[in-house]
Amino acid sequence: MTETSAFKPIKLSGRLDTAKVGEIETRFYAEVGAIKTPGAVALIDLSEVDFLSSLGIRLLVTAGKTLKQRQVKLGVIAPASEGVMQALEISGLPELFSFFESEEAARAAL
Amino acid sequence: MEMFADIFAGLGLFFVGVKLIGGNLKQLTGSWFRRLIEAATRNTTVSALVGILSGALTQSSNAITFISIGMVTAGLVDVGRIVPMVIWANVGTSALVLLSAIDVKLAVLFLLGATGVAYYFDIDRAPRFRHVLGAVLGLGLLFFGLELIKSGAMPLKSMDAVREFLSFAASSYVLAFLIGVVLTIVAQSSATVSIIAVTMANVGLLTIDQTIVVVIGASLGSGISIALLSTNLRGIGRQIAWMQVAVKLVGVIVVLPFFAVEMPGHVPGIKALVFALTSDGATAVALVYLLLQLVSAVLTTVFRDRIMAAIMRLSPPTDEEALSKPRYIYAEALDEPRAALDLVEREQVRLFEFLPDIVDAVRVDGASKLGPDLLASSAGSVARQCGDFLTNILDNNSARDVLIDVVEIQKRNEILLSLIGAVSDYVKTIEAAGAVSPDSKFGRLLFALGESLHTILAVANDAFLHKDRRDLDLLREFTSDRSTQMERVRRQVMEVEDIGPAEHDTLYASTTLFERTLWLLQRYMSLVEGPKAAE
Lengths: 110, 535
Hints:
The structure holds two protein chains of two kinds.
Chain A: E1 10-16, H1 18-33, E2 41-52, H2 54-69, E3 73-77, H3 82-91, E4 98-100, H4 103-109
Parallel strand pairs in A: 1-2, 2-3, 3-4
Helix pairs in contact in A: 1-2
Chain B: H1 2-40, H2 44-58, H3 61-73, H4 79-92, H5 94-101, H6 105-120, H7 127-153, H8 160-171, H9 173-187, H10 190-202, H11 208-229, H12 235-262, H13 270-277, H14 281-302, H15 304-314, H16 319-324, H17 337-351, H18 354-359, H19 372-396, H20 400-433, H21 441-466, H22 469-478, H23 483-496, H24 501-529, H25 531-534
Helix pairs in contact in B: 1-2, 1-7, 2-4, 3-4, 3-12, 4-12, 4-14, 5-10, 5-14, 6-7, 7-10, 9-10, 9-11, 10-11, 10-14, 11-12, 11-14, 12-14, 12-15, 13-14, 17-19, 17-20, 19-20, 20-24, 21-22, 21-24, 23-24
């Protein structure tokens, strides 16, 4: 369910509840960890996420922290779900990362 | 008839005396008793001595047991430290029993006279003397009541019916033992029953052997009474109560066989021992009471750890007690103020673990098995114990740098208590709202608030635990001013949906509490890092 490269978005989808985060986190962090080049652009695609729990939000926070330390630019492709986007906004994530409506918009901006 | 009236009036005065002594001493002992117990529990020997003193003052091991339970459950002292006091309080209760065996009639009359004169001159109106005078009046009435019982009961021993009953009772020590047990369960005090028995022995209504058996029975009765009173207790409270039951049982189990062997007159034992010390029968019985308490206290002290381990297996601490127990702070650390402050800081950081778990109660995905009220009250209890500990550091030190740090950490503690309150109120607000459709704008907002609050509290826990610069920076971003954002989300819900007054209240309360929690986290962080770092 995730595909990766330094330029391809890391895609998350479906219901990111505690159980699902437990299943995907090792692979997700491995994919994030593989992006090491300073100045590179990393994209996390949340467009198909329809449920995001606290653990899912922290998954993004940790990824953002790691990438920032490596001076990798992070863009997040915003979720289509209004509820998921509101959870991200109230958590304060748009203050930490740039959110974009599409991959194209992200690439153009970053 | 007059004889029964004397006994009845004597019993009445005796009970009034007991109440007056206990009631006034409780008032008198409020704050200093608490300070005394806190100081005493730092040392086993002092704890035992304070137990003896408390037992002598209150004349009730039950009272000391339940005061101790109150102090331990309030987190003021540790169970292991208060146990010696509970054990040795029994020895203190011997004081009045010994006094009752001595002829104190003249002293009692003068005491009552002097107390009356003091009341006439309104000395009781002075707050300093009010309770002292009340306790002295109680003591006077108690002994005057005993004198009335003695004089009223004197003619009884010449009455045929009484003689027959007594000879029947004398023929059955089991009956005398049961009388001691039952009367103590009714009177709630083995000392009270023993004093009455000694008084009866004084006038020759009971034989010395009967009285000793009544006294031993009274000790068992006291144990049964505490066991009955502790049925509604759980965890640590029940541990202390059962320790007191064990004290009573040990005494009876050890002393009773000695006396049973001695009674037929073949082997010298307890009776021989006390009569070697006194020739007066009533004093001898009072000494048996003292011996019973001493044997119980010594043996229970020797085997304290084993008894306590068995009791802890039977009544383990409740979830709340286990959670409310500080992990780092302990009384001995007060001797080293710097180390003590470090321990308080560690304890405070630990409390951040509780906060996301409290929010779990209202999350779809919540994993915490413990209820929010239990978690909030336990966290609050630990925070208050930190507050008391900090006050003790202040009391014991005058070094300026220590005082400044204590005040800073006290401020953090106050914010922590407010944080626990705000998070707990948030959960209560959401719980009170009941089921809200997850597809509505209002439902989506509540979901987002819950998940966001949980995230931020978890980040705060990591940041304060590891003191990682990046985590602290992240937390500062998360806890920036949200008033505009909250105002916007409230407006969005109200513009789109026609919500009722209850939902309106929930909307305002939940967003305000969310905002308040973040503001408190920001304030806590600025205290931890200093004002410059927060800018």
